[in-house]
Amino acid sequence: MSVHGVFNYQKPTIERTLVRNGKLYTHRDLRGSDDQIYGAQWSNEEVVVRNARLEEPFHLDVQGFEFHKCSTSMAYADFFQEENILQRYHAEIVDLIKKTTGAKHVIPFDHNIRSATGKSSEKEIKGGAKVQSPGGLVHNDYTITGGPMRYEQLSQPPKVNDSIKKEGMKPTIPEEVYEVGKKGRWAIINAWRNIRDKHVEVYPFALMDARTASEKDLCVFEIHYADRIGENYFAASSPDHRWYYYPQMTRDEVILLKQWDSDGWLHGGSRANFTLHSAFKDPSSPEDGEDRVSCEVRCICIWDEK
Questions:
Q1: What is the pLDDT of residue 34?
Q2: In whole angstroms, what separates CA 93 from the centre of its chain?
Q3: pLDDT band at 168 (very low <50, low <70, confident <90, very high)
């Protein structure tokens, strides 16, 4: 039914803030790799992680994530060619998100391959970024200022750290589509998939029920790029937090997770703003379990109205 996992939270003494304060940050290079994290106060907390396959259906607008059966035409090796991800895989994810959310416009703007062994061996996507390690920190990728700031940035010509650059340096979000989102609703949704032929054995992906997170848990973590500053949320632990995972995920399964929503609760809206998430060490994993290799694609999603 559940497992006990250890999660990397921030200590209760960390300064809680929804906006940038310059105290908790890292530097990210042009290949997507980070420097050390400055100002962090790590606290390893053991928590119960429930088997989401055995519980109620989950929804992006309620718990902040949902699960879908969705095969891919991409073979494992295909994911290590940037052109394949851009031309083939992005189209598959766009189709999935449009069908499941009703968004009129879905625009991929970023992607990563994650693998512990791939990171240690400095493996890279040919024509793209280096492979990154699983995100084993309790976090969300955008904040109350960072989410809207990213939406504005993507309506401008790409910056040097942007992984997708349109021909002629055109904005990722066309002007007419940008205006639709400003008048209606937009969100950032991430699609997460195990890309190995074998099911996930180690470092499974866990998600927190968005209804169990609170503003008082959050602190801004700054990512200093070459020409901009991005913002994530880290979190201090709380007994209210409720964690879930999908054991033994296969490559024909996808998790969609909310990372920001213009109609979210932090703006006084009616939907989940985001779900905190993290990879974690599963004590039930086999000692000789094969490394998890996953692909994530972040998308701007735009509806005509809220």
A1: 86
A2: 14
A3: low
Torsion sign, CA atoms 146, 191, 199, 294: negative
Query: Which of 128, 139, 157 is CA-nearest to residue 10?
Result: 139
Query: Which residue, 205, 201, 170, is CA-closest to 190?
Result: 205
**Domain span holding position 213:** 2-52+60-303
| Residue that has been written with the tokens 């007419």 in this structure | 176
pTM of the model: 0.95
- Model pLDDT for residues 125-139, shown as the tens digit of each residue: 999 999 999 999 999
Number of domains in the chain: 1
